[in-house]
Design brief:
Number of helices: 13
Helix content: 25-40%
Bound molecules: beta-D-ribofuranose, calcium ion
Structural class: alpha/beta
Number of strands: 9
Order of helices and strands: EHEHEHHEHHEHHEHHHHEEEH
Strand content: 15-25%
Length: 311
């Protein structure tokens, strides 16, 4: 099994991924850490606690970044995930409370308690991981691996023509996390845009669940409308679940190894730039950062089937 920390900003597609993390027998969910992103951080924490409770599980939730490290925070547009992050459906009250530690402290403590074992899966803006790195750089050598849903190297962006939302929302944090030199895989729009969770899949998911299923199906309807308007597809891209699909079923993906760079300013702000390894560039700075793996291809149908089956 994979012991993981799930760093998240729930979020409709985050909620689907959290349900997978709670339910998949090969995943041991050690805790969730929350960040601003799709919603403000207090709402993200509320939603993470709620989803665990609906699944009947006690999972620590540690609250983290309320804003980007450097740039000012733009409020999340409510038409994508709803003002409450879960498609504005009515939600039951939360019983539990957040862990008293900050997200960064929770990450550091958890990795140090089990050196070499813990996988960090990050599916929101990357401030919590960046802060953890800054407070305790020794986690670079102690984490098992880091899987980031974010970025785009060939596909183009979803916030600007070149920037994906999680990277764009805190490019300075992303720059630190993607160039830290820990074993990292980027699961970006290059693959998540090839995966479409259609209404038929969601009907199967909802049929197999109880309270949690109502929230997943209810919020899905809202998210589907957004995809219909923006991309003209019937269904939605389960971005964040793809990071877990990579962890559990890597054979469904193809990856390339190379150097990652994040543009932090100007027109290209939030762009992830990928320089495949062993390619000489006349301008050497593109190959100075440590190596990372980037997902470039995917069997999208198989990933969506895996998500549906798991749920
Ligand atoms: C990412 O941005 C968020 O809106 C989603 O939850 C996902 O993590 C996709 O670009
Ligand atoms: Ca997310």
């Amino acid at each position: 099994t994979h012991p993981i920390i799930f760093d998240t900003d729930p979020g409709v597609d985050d909620a689907q991924a959290i349900a997978i993390a709670l339910r998949h027998p090969a995943i041991e969910l050690l805790g969730m850490t929350t960040t601003f992103g799709n919603v403000d951080v207090a709402t993200a924490t509320h939603n993470a606690l709620l989803l665990a409770e609906l699944a009947g599980r006690e999972v620590p939730v540690a609250q983290g970044a309320a804003a980007p490290l450097v740039k000012p925070r733009h409020p999340a547009p409510a038409h994508i995930h709803g003002a409450n992050g879960l498609g504005d459906i009515a939600l039951p009250a939360v019983q539990g409370r957040a862990d008293p530690r900050s997200a960064a402290r929770f990450i550091i403590d958890t990795i140090n308690a089990r050196p070499g074992e813990v996988t960090l899966v990050a599916v929101g803006p990357l401030g919590n991981l960046a802060t953890a790195l800054q407070l305790d750089p020794t986690i670079i050598d102690k984490v098992k691996q880091v899987v980031v849903m974010g970025g785009s190297v060939r596909e183009g962006g979803n916030v600007t023509p070149v920037a994906e939302a999680n990277i764009f929302n805190d490019p300075h944090a992303a720059a630190r996390v993607l160039t830290a030199g820990w074993p990292l895989t980027l699961v970006g729009l290059d693959v998540t845009h090839r995966c479409v969770l259609a209404p038929g899949h969601m009907a199967r998911i909802a049929a197999g669940q109880d309270k949690l299923g109502e929230v997943l199906a209810g919020s899905y309807g809202f998210y589907r409308d957004f995809y219909q308007e923006m991309l003209g597809i019937d269904g939605c891209c389960p971005h964040d679940s793809c990071a877990l699909a990579w962890l559990i079923r890597p054979e469904l993906f193809t990856t390339a190894r190379g150097h990652l760079t994040v543009a932090t300013q100007g027109e290209a702000e939030g762009q992830t730039i990928f320089a495949p390894e062993n390619r000489g560039y006349i301008e050497p700075r593109w190959s100075r950062t440590p190596l990372a793996d980037v997902c470039l291809g995917v069997d999208g149908k198989a990933v969506v089937e895996w998500i549906t089956e798991t749920l």
